Amino acid sequence: MNDALYGVLFRDQGVQEYLVFADENEEAAIDEARRRDEKAFDDAVEKHADESDEFAEPVWEDYDGMFYVQPVTRQLAEDAEEMLARNMAVQLH
Fold it and tell me: Measured between alpha carbons, how far is 71 from 26 in angstroms, rounded to an integer?
């Protein structure tokens, strides 16, 4: 039995790493990472449209790969399950 899962992660300002999704299927994790990249970009575009004086126009390259996939242990995914189910990011140490 394989104890590794695929986690979707991101780094907060390039420093602290967070887990936001875990799945046994690598393709599902890749699709989720891409979906989250697109949502973050869309949110930034909307924010720019609403408050263009305060926020620079977003560039896709800044968001492409913001969320990435890496193997995570089954134990980590199980420990994070409750928070992930509530759509909360889990800070990794």
Answer: 9
- Structural element, H or E, at residue 48: helix 26-50
Domains held by the chain: number: 1
The Cβ-side half-sphere exposure at 72, using a 13 Å CA radius, reads 29
Q: What would the pLDDT profile of 5-48 be if each residue is shown by its tens digit?
A: 999 999 988 789 999 999 999 999 999 999 999 999 999 999 88
Do the Cβ atoms of 91 and 18 come closer than 8 Å? yes
DSSP string covering 70-84 = EEEEHHHHHHHHHHH
Range of the domain at 8: 4-91
Look at the chain and count its residues.
93
The Cα–Cα gap between 19 and 37 comes to 14
Query: Between the CA of residue 11 and those of 3, 46, 67, what are the distances in Å?
Result: 24, 22, 8
